[in-house]
């Protein structure tokens, strides 16, 4: 089959690779109809990880079941399904606790697996024609047959739940005020999720105009951090007060004011968002941190950053009695409910999708998405 | 001062009564700008309680502080405030647990106090020019100065939080489906609150056209129980399935299909809504019951109803593993957050207000509201 | 293999039945080392259900894995395991929500399955030499190899988690006071669980001396309901106050004061415990109801009881703002943690085990357990 | 009256100071019967804060009400009471949310007040004969009359709730494993609280033999961090696995292995405990941090420590999906329940009390407690 293959930093290609097969009785093979490019794919694409050439990318996958193993019980050939980016077994201790992003079965020696991602297990990515899905009864979320809501449903694989996870980690409740740092796809989904959950005020901090415009279009207040300190701007808008909750949808590649829209190591200040959140969130508040931080970053700005050690204003955090919660999203905790919001028309997350292209156009889309060119915010590949 | 006084069943009058005074250093006197008539006032008005003539009605009160006692610390003369219908101390065990509707200080020998309500303590009602508010720092919720959002803020005294309480008691979460029985003001606020909290589908059951229309206007699905079994209608719309959660916003004066819009004892079937909820909610679901049930009802349809004993399908409830939660709203748990939703423009609960009249028009409003005439859904008196 | 087979009301026999086989790739066959007789087996034994002759009893099963299907991944031949009485798939909506007692996969058309129980699916019971366990990775809880803690671990199949479930349904927290109705095995485990969770005061209501003595031995206060109203007794001991929480570990076969120790339809008052709980629990409190109530009881004391309709003091319940939660235990929510408490020596639930006998002695044990003869409280069969 | 007055670093004296008076109608004056010396008093005593000479120490106060202001409603002269170390109003937003340690009323411009503590408001300490208590109905927890449980009740002012707070911040649940760093009074109370809440395994890390012995005596496993890495020791005891939860009861004056028992700046490594917790807690786990961290430490080991900035292994923390929660204890969230555990005999926290002395012996006790001489673990002064 055809698939997007990583060749070297800043280069992917569409190539022929082996077709996936049923390797275990609980597997299914899914014919991919939509597979998104994720911001975290860019970490590998840019050479900021240990990913080796040859890896097939794609962890945001959706399609139709083509074949099922002998043990698959409820999912059937022909079912339209979307898969969480986390591969999970459903029966290890972490899965039983709802922490399907930290499954200990699917990636031996580590807590957590994913499709097409370095260090996340043997699972081939889905920016391809077909995908092997293990534990298919557990990992395939059924969707209504047909083609309706294709783009919105595709976002159920990762960014809609991951944004929602930010709101959940921060414990956002009706009537609260929230500051979301980052207006990339996850930040926008986080802001959107806060509004779905009934937040009264949502501030979204970024410095890319198109992204801030999208934030404003859904009812959030855009804050451009190139203009002035985002903490000061938010406090001024709130009469001197900070906010109840904060969400970090940026992660370790955070950049300082005035940096280029694309980012780049020269502009990175990996602890800047965390310390701004500690500053802007009111005492007794909470921080939800879905933005990625890594224990090993070959391109880190200094030796500490390279091993994931960040200087945090912990005295201030303690004095305020803040809480913080981190980690990648356990997609299965949210994907059925978010699907039902899409079906009922209460949620339309696909406003964030800027481009839908064929698999062959994938390599070009990587280039443009990485450079934030032409308004590339979120790209879906249709094999 | 002038006040709405209960004279006898089906009769209230505006009369001169004694002005309230600061009786305790923590008291405040509030000049009332808005005081709503509540559906529960009608229980007294209709003679369905032990209320004696002479009682001043009014527990949904809002206004401006006119005077404060020597111990009041944060609230000042001139503050615009709205008071929860529950009078509460803030320091008894129940208040400390957030159960301000069950304060043991303000109504000795009973858990819970309110303004202008039979058996709820010595607190005079606020359908009047002035109101004595005890524990003013605790009981007065500050509002932005001015006159903006007057009607919406007035609903913070009772029905908006009480509707929200229904959603909270049922544990309504984003993406869920909910059946709300009753499209009176509390039912509409419950449905509205479910939507604010991110429910995917909300069904509202009633048989008054204007009320069902209002439910539809906010994005809920109206179900007319005169047409067919509401349980069957909802299950049919959902492809045979019930709903995740249910809310009873009707209470003990529930009526059967085909009864008159006004209700009346001849049509009452006090357990009908509860058993329909047990039927329509899916296994593992939950029922939130803000609708009033009483341990003593002089007008009960039979001896059991008169002592608040109802026949419930408990075997079915158990087999489904349902939860249920009851009781009057602890307004302080929600009123600040709901106020902030109104200020930010995210909530506009005053769609439910059908009439705003002067205090002198109060007696006429009672007659029409009780008869559901002229589209009377929710009335605010402006003294 | 040899198994305990139901013959007719009040009669079981040990007979040869077909050996279980791997029918699905996710199955395992477990060689049973311990299988308990449950109080709910007596419902079938006494003819109070629709159970037909020929059914093999036994849903509290423990043993060693003898064989695994091709799809079983983590569980191995030779593993010592205990199975929840609920059969569950791990991937249906209810299982994903933690409600493994309401699995919709294993018993089509119904929410919930179990081994060896009428209406709970095709699963053969484990009072036998071997047991077929579906979805073995999900349903088998691994235990330390060897024979240590055999009796305590066997209780992890049902009554220890079920008692704990009562405490969870009531939301028992450290420092609280609790009334537990019923000192049978589940009631004792509920009381024990409340103490493990840090309850300050636990009252246990029964009228069988041996059972009340056991309650006292673990630090609870025994209340004999034959002596006087249990509500009055508890309130007197607490200086007039009720309790924070209540647990019903009795269910629909509740009996009035002065009834025989064995029970029997002539003494049954199916709503008595529920109404006593409503009376004894303080306003704002909660009731946990693991005790069984059924929607259809052929032997019900009257027509209402026969269809599971009970008269509850609902007005009083509402006035107090009580919550209640029901349903059979989702064993997997608790069994790993309770296992770890047994391993660490912090929990020793086997104080409740009165008899351990061979499979052949099973029929005799049924007779005595049903009659509460010879101190029969909890029996374990060892095939 | 006589009181313990701070004179200069490492020196306090008992002196005559002005008697407290009723300054506000909600005040009470309490005659002190017990007032403990807290480890956090030593921060001031050692000159590690901005505390000025003349301050009266004492925030762990208990006694009998001597006088009440005109507005005090439920508390009476003669009531035996214990006061949370946090002074709180009961009606500000933070108090309403249960965050009484972050009251915005009692210490203008800051969230949180306390008796006798630098920067925590105008409230005079209680290591004295009398104490002014504001908002007496809210701040005085009533106790049974008499002298029983005097030492145990005195611990309700701070360390028992603060230790419990650690368990709550970490979300410790029945059956879990926990690592508690620090076996001072708060660490011991944290370990004790974990056991009360049903933890299966509790490891307590310290290097003072008497303290580790106390930990062992209550059923915890002592870990001496002078012997080897505490992380390695715990993982070895658990067969290679870490723990479910961690509690930091040490704070910013954490010391490295081999440091003197007394501590001292030369041995301090302020981030060592936090990073060890990140290492020892399993993925999906949580850290409760009641141990004090400050935004400004004049004696900090370097410029970063002096402003409360610590280097945390945040990449590792994120990869594991850990949560952490911080801040001083909101004593009122727990003190009534913990009191009830003491009354019922289920909790006996006074095992931690090593010395009870007169007020005049206070200065000598400060010297010995600061040096950890003569087994000084927890001292109560009886004026």
Keywords, separated by commas or semicolons:
homotetramer; 383 residues; alpha/beta; Quinone Oxidoreductase, Chain A, domain 1; Rossmann fold; 2 domains; seven-stranded mixed β-sheet; six-stranded parallel β-sheet; 18 strands; 25% helix; 24% strand; globular
Descriptive overview:
Four copies of one chain form a homotetramer. With 383 residues, chain A is an alpha/beta fold. The first copy, chain A, folds into two domains: 2-158 and 330-382, Medium-chain alcohol dehydrogenases, catalytic domain (Quinone Oxidoreductase, Chain A, domain 1); 160-326, NAD(P)-binding Rossmann-like Domain (Rossmann fold, 3-Layer(aba) Sandwich). Chain A has 13 helices and 18 strands. In chain A, the strands form four sheets. In chain A, strands 3, 4, 5, 8, 9, 17 and 18 form a seven-stranded mixed beta sheet that branches. The first copy, chain A, has a six-stranded parallel beta sheet with strand order 12-11-10-13-14-16, sandwiched between helices. In chain A, strand 13 (243-248), helix 9 (272-280) and strand 14 form a beta-alpha-beta unit. In chain A, helix 5 (159-169) crosses helix 6 (185-196) and helix 8 (230-237) runs parallel beside helix 9. The termini of chain A are close together. At the A-D interface, strand 14, strand 15, helix 11 and strand 16 of A face strand 14, strand 15, helix 11 and strand 16 of D. Strand 15 of chain B pairs antiparallel with strand 15 (309-313) of chain C.
